[in-house]
Amino acid sequence: MTINETPQKVRKKSKVFSITVMVIMTSLLLFNILKRPTEFSQLENRNLTQLNAPTFTTIFNGEFMDNFSNYVTDQFAFRDFFVGVKANIERIMGKKGNNGVHFGYDNYLIQRTQGYNQSEIDDNINAIKAMADTKRFNLSLSVVPSAFEVMQDKLPMNAYDNIYLRLMDSVNTGLEGVDVNIIDTHSTLMEANNDYLYYRTDHHQTALGSYYVYRDVATGMKLSAYEYPAFEIKTVATDFYGTTYSKAPLLNAKPDEISVFKLKENCPSYSVECPGDEYSLNGLYDEEKLKEKDKYAYYLGGNHPLTVVKSDCGTGAKLAIFKDSYSHSVAPFFANHYDEIHMIDLRYFTDDMVAYLLQNGIKDVLFLYSDDSFLSGSNLAKLGSFASMYKYVEPTYGRVPESEAVDAGFFADALFIGDSLTKGFRMCTDLPVKFLCWGGGGTTQVLSVPSKEDNVVIVDAAGADPDVNKFYIMLGLNEIAITDKAGYIERYTKIIKKLREAKPECQIYIQSMLPISRSCEAKTSLSMADINEANRLLEKMAEENQCFYLNIIECIVGADGYLPEGAASDGIHFSAQYHAKWQNYLQTHTYMDPNSQIKPTVEFVLFPDGGEVDLLEISDQLQNEVKFVEKLNPVSDRIISSLYGINEGDAVNGIVLTSSGATAEEIAIFEVSSPQMAKAVKEKLYSRIEKKKGDFENYIPKEMGKLNSPLVAYGDNLVVMCLSDYNDDVEKVLKEFDLKID
Amino acid sequence: MVFSSILFLFYFFVPVVIIYYLLPQKFKNAFLLISSLIFYAWGEPKYIFLMLFSAVFNYAAGLYVHKFSNDEKMAKRIVIAAVVVNLGILGVYKYTGFFLSGFMRFISPDAKILNLILPIGISFYTFQALSYVIDVYRKDAPVQKSVVNFALYLSMFPQLIAGPIVRYGDVALQIDNRKESFEKFSQGFIRFVVGLSKKVLIANNIGALWNMISSFEYTGLSMGWAWLGIIAFSLQLYFDFSGYSDMAIGLGKMFGFDFIENFNYPYISKSATEFWRRWHISLGTWFREYVYIPLGGNRVSKRHNMLNLLAVWSLTGLWHGAAWNFVLWGLFFGAILIFEKNYFLEKLKKTPTFVQHIYALLVVIISWVMFANDNTANMFHYLKALFDVTTLFTFDAQLLYNTLSYGVLIVIAIIAATPLPKKLLNKCVGKRRASVVKFILAILGLIICIAYLIDDSYNPFLYFRF
What we know:
The structure holds 2 protein chains of 2 kinds.
Chain A: H1 7-34, E1 40-41, E2 46-47, H2 56-60, H3 63-74, H4 79-92, E3 97-98, E4 101-103, E5 109-111, H5 118-133, E6 138-144, H6 147-150, H7 163-174, E7 180-182, H8 186-191, H9 207-220, E8 231-240, H10 243-247, E9 256-263, E10 270-274, E11 279-282, E12 306-311, E13 318-323, H11 331-334, E14 340-344, H12 353-359, E15 364-370, H13 371-375, H14 380-387, E16 398-399, E17 414-418, H15 420-428, E18 434-437, H16 443-448, H17 458-464, E19 470-474, H18 485-502, E20 507-511, H19 518-523, H20 528-544, E21 548-550, H21 553-556, H22 576-588, H23 615-625, E22 633-634, H24 637-644, E23 653-658, E24 666-671, H25 675-697, H26 704-708, E25 711-714, E26 718-723, H27 727-736, E27 740-741
Helix pairs in contact in A: 5-7, 5-14, 14-24, 17-18, 23-27
Chain B: H1 6-22, H2 25-43, H3 48-67, H4 72-107, H5 122-138, H6 147-155, H7 157-160, H8 168-176, H9 182-213, H10 223-254, H11 272-278, H12 281-292, H13 302-320, H14 324-350, H15 353-372, H16 376-386, H17 397-416, H18 420-428, H19 431-454
């Protein structure tokens, strides 16, 4: 039997309830107002919104209200508790995940790989193709599957998607015939997927998972990888809750262990430097990070634009890795094989990376990405735009035309091979060259006769000289009259091949045979007809065998087609005056390899016509009036194009000033000629900001403030973006230039 | 500002309640008005002036209508002028683009169209203003002498943005003289939390599912996906909108107001006619009172009546949004209602109850397909997918995954859309403890809502467009 409550009782209870509710809510509000705002959420590993002081503009356009609204939501007291409540309720409600993280079996929290994006994949493929087209590097690529693929048994039913396999199909097809070594790690990881390959609460691989990746990749790169027993394994932390836990902080989550693999024997000593970030480590690991929330940053100290890992393993080899954070736990293994590993994070590295590789003499290049970041945000396209400047140019072989005179230094690595004529040249020239020549010499001797000095066959001696990279050859006077020309050319070709074998990248200059005088022709079996015929054959041979042909005869021969009578006493071996002509000919007929230059020969010009507005005046004013943490420096047109996706014709003129990468500060000013153009440029500025947000979110989250309230302004013919902490000052400057804030 | 936000719950609601209850009676209305203006200005600082204009204009119109209450002709002229101005403003801000684009298409295909941002709540407060002027003219309601009180009626923050559309006659007395009490406050608070939970826990979450499915290509959509999608949308729409009405009614109660109910379990209807007695009641009432009845109501010839109904329903459709699909949606309901009224309803009533339920839900669901798609081609693709049995038995892991993932929520939502939970609560708990249980549930609900608001990834508000 139930009894209805009396009105008095209801009133009393209502009073208690009303007052309780209001007291709870008021105290929560007061607590929120009085507590200091948190800058950074350890749990979510991101910066929380901060309150910006309102201005008239921000109130009127609603920006302040949005900011305030985000601020109070982000800064709400007991935030972590509430985030946890939600995740756990979602799980109870049968949801298979929260914030893009799946509730997997065995306490696995697995980030869903999503966003299959063909155009992004194509960009990456094109970038790698462009790198291959430079023909300067040995390229390897490995796209490592994330837990979503490898630990698919742990996913909720039907949650699996074969996105990795589709991605790899596309990559393999796209890179068919391209000179890049694609290394598969998928099969090994799948076989071992009962092991602890991925963190349960983080999207990265464990040290063990990284070891498997290392073993496959190293083997693929023809290194002899260390086997598992060679390592001593040490666990350094057992209380790691990573990024997937932050997105789905379940009550039953199990913390992860962080461990390191150390070689038991002959372990080199290591160091880490991050130029530009003023960060360095003794060894490979940052112990401090174990005290923080993001313990994965223990490996190499987390994300930096450039991380140089050095070791004294003594192989002398250098490796560059274009990478995401998956590499941080893989690179330590490679430090046992390479003296230097240059890890470049294209999200933050904006200089010419190809030049960087060339300057540092790096030939081995590895692209190591997780499927997730290969699908979005690898920024490989940036690399592609630089690499395309270094496209390998096929040299033009055969006869060398007249070129600008080079100084003697050009010949510092040259070796002359020849007979008595070359011997004569040796006496007269002041070029710093080496000689292998002797009277009466010919192709047969070069191929078979040991030199006097050390009893090595001449051609081998020539090929073995470590300082030599250019060969100048002149042979034939002693043989064309007595042997058949086919045999002569055959032997000559053999010499070329032998030299090439010894030095694949050397330059070989075939010098023409030189003329004889009319009287000499009469006295000997030599004839100008034979010489001219031989020269034609030599030129053809040079062309066919990727050599350069120097038609020296043209600077010595007289008008009648013979060596002038007074030039040589015997009609063959001429005097110093002619040697000077010869030397001059050599200096004015050289081939400059366009591939050997680091700076691109053709400057990339984005705004060929220029504009009418003095953009520098605006940027100077901004730099003077607004406080920037760093000094901003203008970047080249090439970089403007790759950062902003602006091509010729998209804007009339433009300048961009960027920071070193340690802050998000940036100024971009574009001159435009129509409202449509302004609109298009504005969109590009905003997409640049979006992209930059993605780059900085997990990198230097405290810079996110600049990106979350970017300042974009425009006028009749200008569009300006300024990323700083002082929008009020920026506005003041831009108002002077009659610009409206967007 | 929206109710379902930390900002509103703590930084607006708490101070407003405290100050309101501390103030003496005579300042309460003025304070509520100021609070409402701040509430409105928070999201829409520019359009506050438009609303203030509307308030002053209609206040004056009311005074004049009253003044000439003995001069029928003059009063009528004033009313007509007021109607023209009010609908004019609504027309300019809401329908310019719609009519121009229809018109301009004949002139030039790439003509530029004036695009105004729709001022929040304009559809609601315009209708309230009209109801006032007309009620005063009809002498159904007394004239409001205080401009503050009138502005408060128009802009009261609980129902400003999404109704219910309160007729002036219904709250005239309450504005001038109402009584707050702890009972009302706690009832109001509980009602508010119920509404908040409907919005935050059900509508937002199920909306994410619809959001995903509606981004698919509709050609080739399988039957399973189509049904999952439209069920999600139907539930989202109901819980979003009725949740908002609950919050509005609850908030009103906390300040001593009694607003009319706006929803009454619409999905348990047994016919389309019944559905419209249970769905957005205040809008239906408004159109009946101010359009349908003035056009002659039921007392005209059958043919005339049919035309009237179609007119009323195309207007109802157009009210929901400036696009053709809404007109089509309105006409669809108009047609079904005429059909039911003149012929079908009697037959329907003879069938078993479950047949009636299925019929009503089917009609509603088809109407939501029209409601959700402003592209006619998509609309037909979707309708086709709904009945394309050939795609029913193809295995689709993603569909299965999503069905399982959202299954519990959908079942809970369906149950919550019926009166069952209320009955259960009243039955299971002895009435002696009913209030205590409700209080505890309310506090728990609030905490969970806060958790979802803090970690929100999807919190749209559907009725901002109206």
